[in-house]
Amino acid sequence: xxxxxxxxxxxxxxxxxxxxKGLAENGYRVAVADLNIINAEKVANEIMGxxxxxxxxxxxxxxxxxxxxxAEAVDSYFGRVDLVVYSAGIAKASPITQFQLNDFELSxxxxxxxxxxxxxxxxxxxxxxxxxxxxxxxxxxxxxxGSKHNTGYSAAKFGGVGLTQSLALDxxxxxxxxxxxxxxxxxxxxxxxxxxxxxxxxxxxPEDEVEQLYIDKVPLKRGCEYQDVLNVLLFYASEQAAYxxxxxxxxxxxxxxx
Length: 258
Hints:
7-stranded parallel sheet; single chain; Rossmann fold; sorbitol-6-phosphate 2-dehydrogenase activity
């Protein structure tokens, strides 16, 4: 029986919840960590309702003490960590001349600093147990190509690529691999849907035409789906990918190819 433990930060909703459930179905015991503890516990309860093992945890990934407490709590409950998925994220769109400093700083804290803190604390547990674990950041194509009106998000995601490569170098001697998953547009996600009014204004089109415009940019002619992300995550978490580390892996339908 698979005894492995996966920790999903931002696992209480949307993509994070989907990945939490998908990892459980693939044999992981799952720690669902989220800023919204009610959501985290709800997802964990749904997983347990399907006869898998899960527990919900509170974390503010931007707060060092909170992340340290999360690592201690997961360690106390499960006794090990094999896979960490950093799925917390936030995006605020605005032209640069109107972009507020607090929005920029919040984006860096949630998208980058939180990733650093979680990777640091859970790497300690992997090293202590001699586990050749996996650390995965949910990133974006905006971490490889700039994104108009999304300076805070894109800057933080570019930073995530550099952090991933540096973590991979730091942790290679322990057999721990680190990757960023560079997602295309999750058209059905609440984050994308919330930005449609701003994107419509940016593109100069009606709101109901925004999704199709983004689909038209993709060679494979569809948006990125949650299942696409889980498929790639499962491979890079597996032993089959043990010789790969420090990579920024495109899941963009061909929209970004480097």
